[in-house]
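Work Package 3 (structural annotation) set out to generate three-dimensional models for the target panel prioritized at the project kickoff. During this period the team completed the workflow that converts sequence records into discrete structure tokens, so that structures can be stored uniformly alongside our sequence database. As a representative example, we reproduce one entry of 274 residues exactly as it appears in the project archive.
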Amino acid sequence: MVTKHGFLALAPQYTTTSELLSTSAHRRGMDVEVLPAHGGAGAAMGRRGGHYYGGPAFAARVVDALEVALLEPSDDWLATLPYEYTGRRIAMATLAEARCLSRPAFVKPPSDKSFPAAVYAGGGCLPTGPELSLDVPVQISDVVTWAAEFRLYLLDGEVRTGSQYATFGRLDAERLDGHRYEDAVLEFADDLLATCGGGLPSAVVVDIGLLATPEHGAADQWAVVEANMAWFSNSYAADPDRALDVVLRSAGPRTQMAERDRRFCHIEDAHLAG
């Protein structure tokens, strides 16, 4: 039976985040349905009020049956930010163009996982293979070192919750609440959202970080790491109840999608196009 709160559909692959979100959903009276690995949406087929959490490959097989709208930040959002918010040069290119790089760079496919996001010594070191189209878009950025990285869950232009997730590239999860950088993180996020928040979906995850600088005593420099889909993000030490608020909006019923979010929904669907 569908509750008035709807239900949360989970991809079959277990993660700690899916468990945390499931527990939070149960607390607020939502049904939780773990979808079958095979057979589409299974018992969730035809149910109204569905929301989704899980990977994009599995989502592509079930979102039409669930009638869910997946909100995704634009591939080029990071590359369009002013330098003061990135702290490094970032450009969009094709994989073919990236193969011509003659310097080390951080290269990643902005939305899919067609090859690993990593620092490559040059274009000749990028992965090859028949499954990789030379026309696939990639993001190229200068190589930097992050002293600390934080994941922020954003809803309607405000930070709902957050977590440190790494220090100097190593996993290091810690709650944002009470963190020694909490005020600095929120100040940077508020400034970023006031200036560039209009280019993001209403529900999204943005990672920001503190750049490590070689100069002794240099002022802290905060920058955006990247933006991600909330419905496919590890919550680390963020408050799961507040994270769930963002996830539900980021992958919820198509009939409830706000007009401003339509450009962030990548569903080729006549119902949405009309």
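Confidence is low (pLDDT under 50) at residues 268-274.
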